[in-house]
Specification:
Helix content: 25-40%
Structural class: alpha/beta
Radius of gyration: 23 Å
Number of helices: 20
Number of strands: 25
Largest sheet: 12 strands, mixed
Oligomer: single chain
């Protein structure tokens, strides 16, 4: 079988106007970017507001291997499977970050015959949303530092600047830097720190805003620094809120593309789930719910991260009610959680597979704690043995877990029809969705509930710095906000080396920060990094373009 890039390059795409017609989008609301992608004007929601919402389906997963377990592939394949059964469906995905594209993990457009296209464009510059977010963030940083340099009228303490510059690239050398060196005319010298664009508050705000006005109001509330008296300074205080909204005007519009099977897809927003909240935009999700009967969306990494934040943050903010959760598992990830090393995952190992099901069982418990019905989707890989498949399905049957094989990678929508029909049955039933905590609870209580109910921890420990910050947040009402946990995606614990379903472990909260514009408190656990680094051999070194202008090495 061809690789992902070759499959995407050989695909015949429908004109984007045809996809819009299929999705029920009047062409007057389209802003085409070429013939294969378009932005959708926000005015369409005025026309759609009285329509009944479709069914919302979340795709999540177990704790993945470093390469991922095909959650996006399953999301796309499920949408195609639903379409093949004659149902009116749209998928909602996040936009890929260039960091993983050029690093290790790859893009976020699916794989095999379950892909969103144009794959190359989406994984690279697309419609410029990532660049707009980067620009808006760095604009705020520039205005902030200029205010300090130009007489510091707001009495900002340069040692308490908390707004970070950003770059949509994995570049560890920018984690800790010193700016404005040498000349006084360069500004006020201080230490600074870059984050990756998808970890910025601007990205989170794009994904949690109702519209452009809401975006501007949220960006105005962002805390950029503190005064010498310890009082917060906002984006509004430095006068950068209007300019940031101007930069983001077009980025707030969802992007319409298609699958290889021409199912309409909205790709919009791309926060990481280990650092940020890991979900596509509320604007895109609500638009899709008005346009289609079934909306399939995904949340980053495993259910301990993306799904928890989808339920406790995104759905709470947007008033959404998920009606089904698909939990993606793979034989190789289960074997990893059973103790098998990465290099040996292709070898049959029934004992490790069964031991690894403990990780899946915990994620199932976590999803059930939100009151939403679920089904397990086993994403099939070519090297899965028949005995391993039989063993896994027997385990599911024995433990009464609904399960279906997902073969979208090799067979596209055809390989997802069984899962599609099962999911369609589930959403016709009852969903008793509710977040696992009340925002009126203390920050510590929220962190403890997430750590114990979702991760399985026995306790939470805080550094003195984290305790002091948490205590100070009550003064501004920030203690009543949801919590966004920053944690490794590779383990239920905050130690990426601990696999399976760990017992008797402690979650270590090393720091907290406030994202007042996004509307949540971030709790940093373990050794989480907001600026990733490249691996020893980055994917970028194997990429190029041939004499005919064809890309190679991009997956």
């Amino acid at each position: 079988m061809n690789n992902d890039l070759k499959i995407a390059q050989e695909a015949t795409l429908e004109d984007i106007y045809v996809i819009a017609d299929k999705a029920g989008i009047d062409r007057k609301y389209l802003e085409p970017y070429g013939t294969d992608k378009a932005k959708i004007k926000s005015e369409i929601m005025n026309e759609l507001q009285d329509r009944e919402d479709g069914h919302l389906i979340l795709v999540t997963a177990i704790n993945p291997t470093k390469a991922g377990e095909g959650k996006s592939t399953t999301t796309i394949g499920l949408a195609d499977g639903l379409a093949r059964t004659g149902r009116n469906v749209m998928a909602c995905l996040r936009e890929p970050s260039l960091g993983p594209v050029f690093g290790l993990k790859g893009g976020a457009t699916g794989g095999g015959y379950a892909q969103v296209v144009p794959m190359e464009s989406i994984n690279l510059h697309f419609t410029g949303d990532m660049h707009a977010i980067t620009t808006a963030d760095n604009l705020i940083a520039a205005v902030l530092d200029n205010s300090i340099y130009q007489g510091n009228p707001l009495n900002i303490d340069p040692d308490r600047v908390v707004w970070k510059r950003c770059l949509d690239m994995n570049d560890r050398t920018l984690r800790t830097i010193t700016i404005a060196q040498e000349k006084k005319s360069n500004g006020v010298e201080r230490k600074d720190h870059f984050v990756i664009t998808v970890a910025t508050e601007v990205m989170a705000i794009l994904c949690l805003s109702k519209d452009l006005k809401d975006f501007e109001e949220r960006i105005a509330r962002c805390i950029v620094a503190y005064t010498y008296d310890g009082e917060p300074v906002t984006v509004k205080d430095i006068g950068a809120d209007g300019a940031a909204a101007v930069v983001m005007k077009d980025a707030l519009k969802p992007n319409l593309v298609q699958t290889l099977e021409h199912t309409p897809v909205l790709v919009h927003g791309g926060p990481f789930a280990n650092i940020a909240h890991g979900c596509n935009s509320i604007i895109a999700t609500k638009m899709a719910l008005k346009l289609s009967d079934y909306v399939v969306t995904e949340a980053g990494f495993g259910a301990d991260l993306g799904a928890e934040k989808f339920m406790d943050i995104k759905c709470r903010v947007a008033g959404l009610k998920p009606e089904a959760v698909v939990i993606v598992a793979t034989i190789r990830a289960l074997k990893m959680h059973g103790g098998v090393e990465q290099k040996d995952l292709d070898e049959e190992n029934i004992e490790a597979l069964l031991k690894g099901t403990e990780n899946l069982a915990k994620h199932i418990e976590s999803v059930k704690s939100f009151g939403v019905p679920y089904i397990v989707a086993l994403n099939k890989f070519a090297k899965d043995s028949e005995k391993e498949l039989e063993t896994f399905f027997f385990w599911c049957k024995e433990n009464e877990h609904p399960v279906s094989l997902a073969d979208g990678w090799a067979s596209g929508g055809e390989g997802m029809i069984e899962l599609a029909n099962r999911v369609a049955q589930i959403v016709e039933g009852e969903s008793h969705f509710a977040p696992i905590y009340d925002t009126e609870e203390t920050i510590e209580d929220k962190i403890e509930k997430i750590s114990k109910k979702i991760y399985g921890a026995t306790a939470v420990e805080y550094t003195e710095e984290a305790k002091e910050k948490i205590a100070s947040y009550a003064k501004y009402g920030w203690d009543k906000l949801p919590v966004c946990m920053a944690k490794t995606p590779l383990s239920l614990s905050d130690d990426d080396k601990i696999k399976g379903r760990p017992k008797d472990f402690v979650i270590h909260v090393k720091d907290v920060s406030i994202s007042a514009g996004a509307g949540f408190v971030v709790a940093y656990t373990g050794n989480i990094l907001t600026m990733p680094g490249l691996p020893k051999v980055p994917a970028a070194v194997n990429m190029g373009i041939d004499e005919n202008g064809n890309t190679f090495g991009l997956f």
